[in-house]
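A quick aside before the break. I want you to see a complete sequence-to-structure record at least once, exactly as it would be stored in a machine-readable document. Don't worry about memorizing anything.
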Amino acid sequence: MSNLHAPTVPSGPTTAPVTNGHATHLSIQELQRKKDNIEAELRALGGVLDSHGVDMNTSLLTHDGFPRADIDVAQIRTTRARIIHLRNDWKDLMALIEKRLHEHFANLEDNDDDATVNDVTNVTVFLPQDSIPETPDPAFAKVNTVVENSPAATAGLKPGDLIRNFGYVNGENHDGLRKVVECVQGNEGQNILVKVSRTSGGGGHPQELRLTLIPRRDWGGRGLLGCHILPLQVL
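That is the input. The structure line, written in tokens, reads:
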């Protein structure tokens, strides 16, 4: 998928399976980021169901017991299964975050004598996410063109920007940009956080930017974004 002007939502699984079995070694900040990613994907999946006019409980069969022909029954079933899986992951993750917070405060109380040192080393856990340095994810796509006055232009995207994160999509799960398309369609009218790396014409260190993109149809052009994005491997 190299062109986002005519997106389609695949009927297969929305992402690779997520498990929290290896989450116990993550920091509180990393656990929070993982929780945010799960919640973003759940919102996108909810948008997929909304696009069919169904929810988690809507019947997919006709009154005589046959699959409905007016909706993509296979996709809806796959989406519902993924939502159930993610909800369970979210519950497990919240329990782990709560446990880590209890352990953190218990350690502060147990080490009262070293409060000065501990306060310095632990305060970053509670700083706003934007103020905590983080290692950027590798870029997986590049903005090729941006239409003037489009949602992409309004968000600040520019040709040449390297995309590191697009909502819950990153270099590990973009699936040839199909997940980007899915994220766009599932979040029409909603904020999508896009992290890009931008190099100025004069060279130097690239800027790491956090942009807010709102896909919409009423901007007067084609598609929901008004930009053309290519996967890096085909450039």
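Two observations worth writing down. Residues 60 and 221 are 34 Å apart (CA to CA). Strands lie at 141-146, 162-166, 192-198, 207-213, 227-231. We'll return to this after the break.
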